[in-house]
Every structure is written in C-alpha cells, then in structure tokens.
Design brief:
The chain has two domains: 1-134, Farnesyl Diphosphate Synthase (Orthogonal Bundle); 135-303, Farnesyl Diphosphate Synthase (Orthogonal Bundle). With 303 residues, the protein is mostly helical. The chain is 72% helix and 0% strand. The chain contains 15 helices and no strands. The chain has helices spanning 3-6, 17-38, 41-46, 51-71, 77-95, 102-114, 118-133, 141-163, 168-188, 190-195, 203-208, 216-220, 225-247, 256-275, 288-301.
Length: 303
C-alpha cells in the first residue's frame, strides 16, 4: 500500500456514484472549513469567487498544503521523496478518473470543469522535491527562479483557470505574481526557514554584499543582511509591477482575486520594509481591518 493510500480516511471508500458525489461535497466542505479557520489572505481573496470556483480553490490550497507539509516535515530526505512520488502517482490517478485521496477527489470536478492541466500539478510537486532533496541554502538566482516557477507560478496557472481565464496573458500574470509572492514570503520567513536549516536568499545578492557563508544562522547575523533583503525586495517589487501591467490584458471581473492577492502581499512587503531586518522574529501581519479594506477596494475594481 502506498503512503498516501495508507493515510486515506474511511470517508474515501467508494459506495457508488451517488456516494462519490456526497463524499466529494463533504470533502470540499471540510477543506473550506479549514481554510476559513486560518483567516489568511488567501481566504479573503477567495471570498470574491462563486461557490463552485471557491471550493475548487480551497481544494487546490489543500493539495498545496499536503505536499508542502511533506517537504517541510521532519522525515528524512529519502522518505520525503518517496511520499512526494506517491503524490505523483495520485495525480496520475486523478487525471485517469481514479482519485483516491480526499483532496484529489475534491479536485476531480474542477479539473473537468475548468480544464486544469496535469503538468501544472506535477510542477508543484517538482518544487517540493527541490526542498525535499536537500536543505536549500543560498541558491543561485537561476535556481531560485526555477523554484519560484514551480512552487508558486505553477499554482498560479492552475488558479487563473479556476478563476475562468485560460490565456497566455493569464499565465503571464500567474508567473509574475507567483515570483512576487514567493520572494515576499522568503523575506517574511527568514527566521522560520533558518530553523529548518534553509536559506533562500540568492547567492549572487549575498556575494554582492560581501556574504559568502551559507549557514543560515550565520548569514542572518551579518551586518549587511538589511542590504541583501532590500535588494531581494526590489526583485519582488519588479514582479509586482509586471503583474500590474499583465493583468490589464485580462478580463477585469475574473481577475479580481488576483488583484486582491497582489494588493495584500504588496502591503505585506511594505510592512516588512518598514520593520526592517534586525528583529526577524517579530511577526509581520496585515491587520484584518486592513485586509477587509484592500478586498473592498481591489475586489470591486479588479485593479
């Protein structure tokens, strides 16, 4: 029995077509309740979607959490890769109409209804495999770009199809926003990643500021760290600016969730820049009232 099948709940047992429909509905609702409880920026942006598309995004979120939890877990590198290989097999079953896991069962209808692509789900797993193979420390800009393309832009390509836009312009939005969000998250999570023995700050930027070490705790203690982080923030800002250009070529209504995610994460980057880089354990969050205001502003206009 595969590791994924081993962790399946009894609710996934096949009881015929009516039972499948009921279980998929229950699974989608359970996933939605979990996302609601997080109160994340993702949840706020998804409130703009019709129920069926919102449930599809919740299922996508749950898939990402499943594979991300493997990559970030305490298992050995070898076991992580085995578990992610199991997910590759489960994605193959999903696209063959034989999904077993509760999350992939919840994704079955969205794949059919919104034309989601197998290669995008596999790209997400490939990104998690980059984390699982070794502890990433000071990757090259090229490796970091590939990592962002897999763990973030690929998710974006799935998301824009769920939103209702399957065009090259929408894929460009997904690529730029994915890179911007991932770079912002890297800056937000420096201390947390260091505790996992990871450091995603790019090697070339570190070298430019005289930092040649790769041990996360050592790098984060360097006096030049604020300059490094400001340079990475500039990279993120360039991607945010590119999103703003790319989104103008897409239907406004369908891209409202993207506009909200753009605004929320750009606000997060601003708060990180204000906090600075000497107190990395100080949590940076956007207050709920600010999130609500940004949702109202950008959710209504789509820009």
């Amino acid at each position: 029995m595969t590791a994924i099948a081993h962790h399946r709940s009894a609710a996934l047992t096949n009881h015929g077509r009516a039972g499948d429909r009921d279980s998929r509905g229950e699974e989608a609702q359970a996933i939605a309740r979990h996302v609601h409880a997080t109160g994340s920026s993702f949840f706020w942006a998804m409130r703009l979607l019709p129920a069926s598309r919102r449930d599809a995004m919740y299922a996508l979120y749950a898939f990402c959490r499943e594979v991300d939890d493997i990559a970030d877990g305490e298992a050995s590198h070898a076991l992580k890769l085995t578990l992610l290989s199991d997910w590759r097999s489960e994605i193959a079953r999903l696209f063959a109409g034989r999904a077993q896991h509760r999350v992939t069962r919840a994704l079955a209808a969205p794949i059919r209804d919104y034309g989601l692509r197998c290669e995008d789900f596999l790209a997400v797993i490939e990104g998690m495999e980059m984390d699982a193979q070794r502890d990433i420390r000071a990757p090259s800009l090229a490796e970091l770009d590939l990592y962002c393309a897999r763990v973030a832009a690929a998710v974006g390509r799935i998301a824009v199809r769920i939103f209702g836009v399957a065009t090259p312009d929408a894929d460009r939005v997904a690529a730029e926003l994915g890179h911007a969000l991932q770079l912002t998250n890297i800056l937000r999570d420096l201390a947390k990643d260091a505790r996992r023995h990871r450091l995603y700050l790019p090697r070339e930027v570190l070298h430019a500021h005289g930092i040649f070490a790769t041990m996360p705790s050592h790098v984060l203690a360097q006096p030049a760290l604020p300059q490094v982080c400001r340079d990475v923030a500039k990279l993120a800002e360039a991607h945010y600016a590119a999103v703003a250009v790319a989104i103008a070529a897409c239907p406004r209504r369908e891209m409202r969730p993207v506009a909200v995610l753009l605004a929320l994460h750009r606000a997060l980057l601003d708060r990180l820049l204000v906090r600075g880089w000497s107190r990395l354990d100080d949590t940076v969050r956007i207050p709920r009232w600010r999130m609500a205001a940004l949702v109202l502003r950008h959710g209504l206009t789509g820009r």
